[in-house]
Write a structure and sequence with these properties.
By secondary structure, the protein is mainly alpha-helical. It contains six helices and no strands. It is globular and about 50 Å long.
């Protein structure tokens, strides 16, 4: 099965991942909720999160060099949280949405790999 068919078929693992991603979106929105959210998270901005993005990126790189799959997975999760927080901040400021980020990335992937994503 080609990698493209893997995601088009929506097998059980893919469905579980989509459901987990929905929960992640909800969790991040809860963290940033104006009334009930985390006081520290509510104050964060793109700029204030930069040191944490650096730190998590370095920890991810270290995990790769250590060849520790569990740490790689954990650090990828920490990086994903940083990305999700930035997307939520963008949404709060009415700059962009998570969907804008995803659509932009999909467009970039397709445009950079025309030999894989041939126009029919």
């Amino acid at each position: 099965m080609s990698s493209n068919n893997r995601y088009n078929s929506q097998n059980n693992t893919d469905q579980e991942t989509i459901e987990s991603f929905k929960i992640l979106i909800s969790n991040v929105k809860s963290l940033k909720d104006k009334t009930w959210g985390c006081p520290w998270q509510k104050k964060q901005s793109h700029v204030s999160l930069i040191p944490f993005l650096h730190e998590e990126s370095n920890e991810f790189i270290d995990a790769i060099y250590e060849k520790n799959a569990d740490n790689i997975s954990e650090e990828l999760g920490d990086l994903l949280l940083q990305l999700m927080l930035h997307a939520e901040i963008g949404y709060e400021k009415e700059e962009f949405t998570l969907n804008d980020v995803i659509k932009s990335l999909n467009k970039k992937i397709i445009n950079r790999h025309p030999y894989i994503f041939k126009k029919k």
